[in-house]
Each structure stands twice: as structure tokens, then as C-alpha cells.
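Fold this sequence, please.
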Amino acid sequence: MSTATETAHPILIPADQVQLEGDLIIPDHARGVVIFAHGSGSGRFSSRNRFVAQQLRESGLATLLMDLLTRREEEVDQYTAHLRFDIGLLARRLVAAMQSLSVDPRTMNLPIGLFGASTGGGAALVAAARKPEAVQAVVSRGGRPDLAGDALPRVRAPTLLIVGGDDEPVIEMNRDAMAQMSGEVKLVIVPGATHLFEEPGALEEVARLASDWFVHHLHPGPTKIVLDGLDPPALHQR
């Protein structure tokens, strides 16, 4: 449940000639901001990611839950299922969100972390590799880091990979990805949890692990990010 010390800002993020909807929530005295990259067919209303986001805010972190696809794109993707696996596109839109946060007065002095779930884990790692000066930490929940491909060795941000103990194929994907990463990376397997962490206490453990990781690795200071040859994007309040 949100507390009286939180301020919610519905926003629009310009990216790829479209505008993406997001919910930016900033607790008092925020020490950092975490952008959520949702998994296949999900969006900013994901109940699991909203639960984790609430726990992060209780640890003093602002959160941005955003739709990586527009409503029209989501309608098309329901039938084609191709955009949800377009990791390059999803990562590009995460970078657009990072650029917007870096020039917005409410967040420009907050260090940035990325939280990815399922395919969003791969997109978060590609975005971190593209903007190493901007991303201070990454957490992946049941993620597909294998989808990050040749970006994995270029990820400099400390990365926490969280996988369910009963999610055996994804465990192996994460172990293989770890072997390709040269920066700080840690794999935590939550016993008895499946891919969606629906078991009692499993999602609470994910939230605890993510909060500890971000609090430890996000350090205050202006976010330095090189814009991709574009004018600084505005973060529009709806």
C-alpha cells in the first residue's frame, strides 16, 4: 500500500516516434530510481512487479513502471508475439526512459537501476551495456539474460540474477550468461520457486534481495548519460 510520503506522477516517455505510458513514484528523500522492464506480454500493471516496486519504495527508492509497448503495439503483439522478443527495441526504449529521467528535475540527481523480469531481464542487460555511464545496478527476476547475446560481456553494472529453484531451464540460461559476463554478477536461486514466483514467500524474497542489491549499489550523484545524438527528451506529465 502506498504511503502518504509518496508522490505518484503519471508520465509519457517519448521513444521511437511514439509515447510510452509510465507511473513514476518518488518517496520522500529518494536515494535512487529503478526502472522496471516487464516480461513477455506484460506491462506496468503487472501485479508482481508492482509488489516489488512497493518494497523498493519502502527502502527509499523511486520507481518507474512503464509500458515498453504502446497499446496499439500490444494489440498487434497479442497475435504475432514478435515485439515482446525484440530485445533491441525494448532496450532502446529503456534507454529513452533513462535519458528522460536524467534531464527531469525530479530525478536527474538520482542514480539509476534496472529491474527486468523474463524477457525484460535481457532487455535490461542490453540497455545497461549500451549506457554503462548511466546504469549503476541491474536485477533480473526469472530473467532471460541469454537474450542479451553479445552485450553480456559489456555489462559493467553489478548484476543480480534471481531464479526460482524449480525453474530449471532458466537456471541453466542464467548460469551460461554469468560465464560470459566480466563485471560483478551474482546468481541467487530461491528454493521451491517456479518461474513466476507464485509460491508463498517467494516474491517477498525477490523483493528483499532486490532492495538490498539496489540500496548497496546505487550511489547518489548526477546521472551522466550521453544522449543518442538527439535533443534531450522531455518527460511529460499526463
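The beta strands are 6-15, 18-27, 32-37, 61-66, 112-117, 135-141, 159-164, 185-190, 236-237. The first strand starts at residue 6 and ends at 15.
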